[in-house]
């Protein structure tokens, strides 16, 4: 049986690193997209790298040649370098998709987020879901993976509670079940091999409210802590004012924070 050739974009991120390790453990040929040569040092066992910038399509020409499957978790959680969600989460992935279509790859898996289609009013999800729309119309066999948050995202709760207070808009009873990157990598690798033109939700075994996660964070700091529940209209008003009077580069990062105060279950 011929070994599959898999391109991994977003490999330097939290999930991408686990995906590379999982694919290598399955004896696949892995090609990793990197922006700088020095990033090669992050990967043991990878022998094929493609140097390019996903936001610059001219640097991606031929990236999918001889590739069977494409995995991408490319996206930005903190806007920097003057790039917006639309520049990276949408157009960057679209540049990669265009190359995949030209090469007629056999499978394309994109990692978005659970409930993203219902959160298009937030800039980050507007960009992600616009790409999902294009992927559906691409003609390629595809899978959209929708995790309900990563373990790494929970560091936001840890930082918030460091000084003894947890702030929430609303009641703090919205639920989520974050998943470890290693576990999600297994799910992604399974669906790369079986693209069904569908969307898959994935989460960890423990379903917790925001209040419960904050309590775990307080426990980690070995302190009692205080919960502060703010009326949700304050969040909505703040975002409205920022959208009206600032640029997406200013209010965009707050969209990610706002995500945790919306029900995703």
Structure write-up:
The structure is a single chain. The chain has a 7-stranded parallel beta sheet with strand order 3-2-1-4-5-6-9, sandwiched between helices. A two-stranded parallel ribbon has the order 7-11. The longest helix has 19 residues, at 85-103. Strand 4 (69-72), helix 2 and strand 5 (107-111) form a beta-alpha-beta unit. Helix 1 (14-25) crosses helix 5 (181-193). It has 265 residues and is of the alpha/beta class. It is globular, with a radius of gyration of 19 Å. The protein has helices spanning 14-25, 85-103, 123-136, 155-160, 181-193, 210-220, 232-245, 248-259, and strands at 5-9, 29-34, 48-51, 69-72, 107-111, 142-147, 165-169, 175-176, 198-202, 208-209, 226-230.
List keywords for this structure.
11 strands, 18% strand, two-stranded parallel sheet, disordered C terminus, 8 helices, 265 residues, single chain, seven-stranded parallel β-sheet, 38% helix, alpha/beta
